[in-house]
Amino acid sequence: MTLSRLITLLMTLLLLPITVGALAIVAQHNREQWKEQLASHAQDTAIALGLALQPYLAANDLAGAESLVDAIFDGGYYQTILVRAADGSQLIERQANPRPTDVPGWLVAALPLPTPLLGAPIMNGWKQSGMVTVGSHPGYAYRALWLDLWSLGRWFVLGWLASSLLVAAGLRWILASLRTLEDQALRVARLEFTTQKNLPRIRELRRITEALNLLSDKFRGLFSEYSASAESLRELAYRDPLTGLPNARFLQNALAETWETNETRQLMLIQIDGFQALNARLGRANADRILSAAAKTLKRAVKGQSGALLVRLESATFALLAENLGPEPMSRLAACLQAELTDTVASGNGDPPLTACFGICELTDGLTATEALSLADAALRRAQAQGAGLIVSEPRNPQDEQERDLWLKTQLANQTLSLRWQAVADPRRGISLHREAYARLPDADGRLLPAHAFLPFAERNGLQGELDRQVIALVLAELKRADRNGPPCAVNLAAESLADERFVNDLLDALSPRDVGGRLLVETGEAAFLTHRESVGHALKKLRERGVGIGLDRFGRRFADFGYLLDWRPDYLKLDGTLVRRILDDVSGRFYLQSLAHLAHGLNLTLIATQVESEAQQAQLVELGVDGVQGHWVDGLESGGVRSEE
Q: Which of 197, 585, 622, 638 is most buried (CB neighbours < 10 A)?
């Protein structure tokens, strides 16, 4: 029962006995008054009628006496009129039905009105010639009594209604504040630390609101401290303290992930020229300051490159790992970096601007991390031998890239895209949480190529949106065919697609009631989301309002404040593969991942580990608090009748 209904019921229970008691008192008081009036009315009529009948009885005119009695009796105000002679014989008798017909019977039974018979003598001189007896009819009294009670009861009801409306209005105002407090308390329970700016006027409610605001602020501070602690753990393990860039260890994990996911990447080594001599001449402190300035310059220059990872390896050597960039774009990027470094003056002692040498290597299948670094280092050495510039270790034939571009456009125009599915399992309960769709396109021999083989060409030719449209269409078609009680279907969309308002509107129009309610999940990468946070966040909010689940992929890859999770709440997080690959022998990595698990669970988010390769990894991840696993280890699971692959 709601508080408003309870108060209304209590008010009714309070007013009901008061109303009944007041009506009973008024009824009893009016009854006594009417009893006296009926007796007085009967007595007065008897005296008057006795005087009026005197000449008729003296003349022995019985007919005239009856006419007089009838004239009085027919008015309806009398129940009984009796006229007797002096010897007691009955001369005239008139009787009426004592029960009134226009009042409720329960009123007559509850409030009986006795009608006393009162008489007066009929005199003939000094001699009594007869006796007249009169009894008033109670009908008029009952009607008057009923009208009084009805009017009084109606006013009580109107007063109750008016009071109820006033109480309801007051309760509505009070309960609105209570509902706001309830909503704020639930938000705090979900770790959504909001505060109320408009405090209620009621003192008690205002104090509760102030207490909740204080609690919310305290929890936000605790969460921020915990988030900062988790991030500091990662920074100690993976960040260079001088430049603030990721270190060589982080690059090793990123390179290992490249071969796990078969992504197309370019590796560039950057060596600042003459830094050792600069260090010896200016001293370590000044050299470190110059190195920090160079790192900031490089970081600023690659900021606009999606998926670019800038790392400090050692001394004045940096590495840049770029996703889905061909040799030509990579060469242009190196030239841009060279120009930016040229604008960075080495010192204030008239030294020339900084210059650097660049070595580029494309990460092809079969290369290990050590081999890739060796190839890039060899290219760097050749560049240094020439004095400056860059060398690409394995140049590509531009004609091959043009053929790939034409092939991709043809395949998308012919809609030859197909999907392969990979299950995401709950290792504790042994069930499938959802299954993720991966795009495939056939090559000239009919073999299905994974997404990493054509994504660079899609991005270069502006076809990422069309590719995502076809993937979404196939996923929605699968949802229509699949069992409604089966696991949800997830699809990873590019941030560029989600930032496109037309793409999002078309997706919303394509959704049917069967697709929502948790059956469709949309993922996007953490790095891409943070780059396009406003536009992508707006699109994901629209999708969530339609019942689409939201996931954040490659979580924990970037050095970022996790506070953004408070404002933008995905349904689940997928850990970046670099955090999982070395989980068995990386103590600091395990501690960091456990901190991420506590962070996710504190926000009621599901944490999923990707690229799980063995039972030992899965057992370790479960121990650290991971909720789901995805990768080759779960490839043998059956999910909704579709064998998972990838």
A: 622
* H-state helical runs in 262-393: 275-282, 284-301, 327-342, 369-386
> How confident is the model at residue 368, as a pLDDT?
65
Q: Which two tokens stand for residue 76?
A: 């309806």
Q: Which pLDDT score is estimated for 390? A: 59
Residue 605 burial (10 A CB sphere; 0-12, 13-18, 19+): buried
Q: Among 515, 519, 489, which residue's Cα sits nearest to residue 422?
A: 489
The string of pLDDT tens digits covering residues 234-269 is: 666 678 888 888 888 788 777 766 554 545 678 888
The domain segmentation of the chain, as residue ranges, is 3-149, 258-396, 407-643
Q: What is the pLDDT of residue 468?
A: 92
Tell me which CATH homologous superfamily contains domain 258-396.
Reverse transcriptase/Diguanylate cyclase domain (3.30.70.270)
DSSP letter at 625 equals T
- 289 pLDDT above the threshold of 50: yes
Strand, helix or coil for residue 555 = strand
Question: What whole-number distance in Å separates Cα of residue 166 and Cα of residue 172?
Answer: 10
Q: Full-prediction pTM beyond 0.70?
A: no
Q: Counting beta carbons within 10 angstroms of the beta carbon of residue 384, is it exposed (0 to 12), middle (13 to 18) or buried (19 or more)?
A: middle
CB 499 within 8 A of CB 468: no
3-state secondary structure of 632: helix
- Phi then psi for 508, rounded to 5 degrees? -65, -40
Hey, which of 5-9, 381-385, 452-456, 573-577 has the most confident mean pLDDT?
A: 573-577
pLDDT value at residue 233:
65
Nearest to 46 by CA among 80, 70, 18, 20: 80
Which CATH number describes the domain made up of 3-149? 3.30.110.200
What fold, for 407-643? TIM Barrel (3.20.20)
Beta carbons of 290 and 346 less than 8 angstroms apart? yes
d(CA 496, CA 464): 8
d(CA 489, CA 423): 9
Q: Which of 594, 581, 610 is nearest to 523 (CA)?
A: 610
Four-point Cα dihedral 379, 239, 559, 453, nearest 10: 30
Question: SS3 sequence, 339-371?
Answer: HHHHCCECCCCCCCECCEEEEEEEECCCCCHHH
Does residue 474 register a pLDDT over 60? yes
Alpha carbon of 573 to those of 299, 455, 523, 610: distances in Å?
Answer: 27, 23, 9, 10
pLDDT (average), residues 524-543: 84
Helix (H) or strand (E) holding 569: none
